[in-house]
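Structure in, sequence out. Go:
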């Protein structure tokens, strides 16, 4: 499940730096940009948002409206406040308003990622139930090539498969999947699933064999 991050920063240069750091280090991130509190408030009404990341503008207190809307709306959205320091009256005001995390700029990619993960833990976003049926397999057809994989679990978000590396498989291309499993002793075959690879994790446990 993707994490939708609202990035509010009036400096275009800093906004692009932060966006690039997020996208380069958080594989499930989708970044929505806003240059002002007003623009962010408008966007929040029309987009999916799992985290608000904003730079405190000490010349105004309009950002308090953003924190209030994010944290006290129908969906409680965590807020990370960015500032040149993590001390001072504006930081205390942001805490009182409801900001959960604070980060001083400039920051390292590691500090940014750690702060985002604390405020918006991807594991806590897994609302869809996962199902596992023993010995479930899939046949993956891509052009004239056919591959086999073991299904780890199935959810509303898709299939998690244990997939041996095949040099002929094109990870950037779509494939058709046929699902095979046993249900109460009966073989079930469900063909025709159009699929794409959304995430890839490499396991080297067989290396060296």
């Amino acid at each position: 499940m993707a994490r939708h991050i609202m990035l509010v920063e009036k400096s275009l240069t800093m906004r692009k730096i932060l966006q690039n750091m997020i996208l380069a280090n958080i594989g499930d991130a989708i970044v929505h940009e806003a240059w002002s509190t007003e623009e962010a408030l408008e966007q929040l009404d029309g987009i999916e948002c799992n985290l608000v990341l904003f730079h405190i503008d000490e010349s105004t207190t309009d950002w308090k409206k953003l924190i209030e809307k994010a944290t006290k709306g129908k969906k409680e959205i965590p807020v990370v406040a960015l500032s040149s320091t993590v001390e001072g009256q504006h930081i205390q005001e942001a805490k009182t308003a409801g900001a959960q995390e604070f980060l001083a700029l400039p920051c390292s990619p590691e500090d940014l990622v750690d702060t985002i993960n604390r405020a918006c833990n991807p594991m806590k976003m897994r609302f869809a139930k996962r199902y596992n049926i023993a010995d479930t397999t899939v046949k993956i057809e891509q052009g004239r090539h056919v591959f086999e994989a073991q299904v780890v679990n199935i959810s509303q978000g898709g299939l998690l498969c244990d997939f041996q590396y095949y040099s002929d498989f094109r990870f950037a291309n779509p494939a058709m999947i046929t699902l095979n499993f046993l249900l109460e002793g009966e073989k079930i075959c469900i063909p025709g699933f159009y699929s794409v690879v959304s995430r890839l994790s490499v396991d080297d446990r067989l290396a060296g064999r």
